[in-house]
Amino acid sequence: MMDIVRLHLARIDAFNHIPVHGFVIKHPRAGAILVDTGVGFPDELVKEWKVVNRHAADAMAEHDLSPADVRIVINTHLHFDHCGQNAVFKHAPFYIQRSELERARRQEKLTAEWFDFAGARFELMDGDAEVADGVRVVATPGHTVGHQSVIVDTPDGGAIMIGDAAYTSDIYRAGAKADLSQWRGQYADRDAWAGSLEKLRAMHQHAVHFCHDTRVVEVKR
Ligand SMILES: [Zn+2]
For residue 78, how far is its CA from the centre of ligand 1 (angstroms)? Predict the structure, then answer.
């Protein structure tokens, strides 16, 4: 039995007031696996986004969890709202696509300390990989070059933690035809993004969880 717990980590008021979610996968043997860590502190670093930020420890406490429970962190990618509080979990390894760390080291200078702090232990992956029994990452490039999504086997079927491969359930449902006029930054590479989204949709997993949308897409069989 693998439960998925959604954390409320922040809200970004300058970008459609979207929520920022992380997820804890309660793995029976590997321990708690955390997918994404929200926006870092001090959040003045990204003040143009008007973030209403929370400490990950507070968000976890709502679910009787604490940072010490986390054994593994998976970052879907290294934008500021997905890896900001990695340092809270510096006892855990960070599972990241190698190409994403290389991109972020070039492009995310402002928030580099949030993911590339001294002592950070990276488990760098090149494409699809198993992280623990029943938990795997799939490469879903396009939002960023090294973006990945997480797939978890649950009793009901597979669940996807999609990261930013689709910001919202509406975008997921519409696929490549989605109206992105309010959603700048959905892709860095449009063709790769559309291909990744199509790949995820074709998997017909039971549930899709979003970082920036509290709605869950449940796929009927
Ligand atoms: Zn992003």
Answer: 7
CA distance 89 to 159: 24
Report helix, strand or coil for 76. Answer: coil
Residue 109 CA to ligand 1 center (angstroms) comes to: 15
Take residue 207 and report the two structure tokens written for it: 């549930």
First to last CA, the chain: 21
What's this model's pTM, rounded to 2 decimal places? 0.97
Q: How far is the CA of 79 from the centre of ligand 1 (A)?
A: 5
Q: How far is the CA of 81 from the centre of ligand 1 (A)?
A: 7
Query: What sign does the CA torsion over 161, 164, 166, 169 have?
Result: positive
What is the Cα–Cα distance from 6 to 12, expressed in whole angstroms? 17
Per-residue pLDDT of 158-210, as tens digits, reads 999 999 999 999 999 999 999 999 999 999 999 999 999 999 999 989 999 99
CA distance 96 to 73: 9
Helix, strand, or coil (residue 195) = helix
Domains and CATH numbers, the chain: 3-218 (3.60.15.10)
Going from the C-alpha of 6 to that of each of 20, 35, 48, 54, 65, the distances in angstroms are 10, 10, 26, 14, 12
pLDDT tens sequence across 128-137:
999 999 999 9
How many whole angstroms from 221 Cα to the centroid of ligand 1?
30
Gap from CA of 143 to ligand 1 centroid (Å): 7
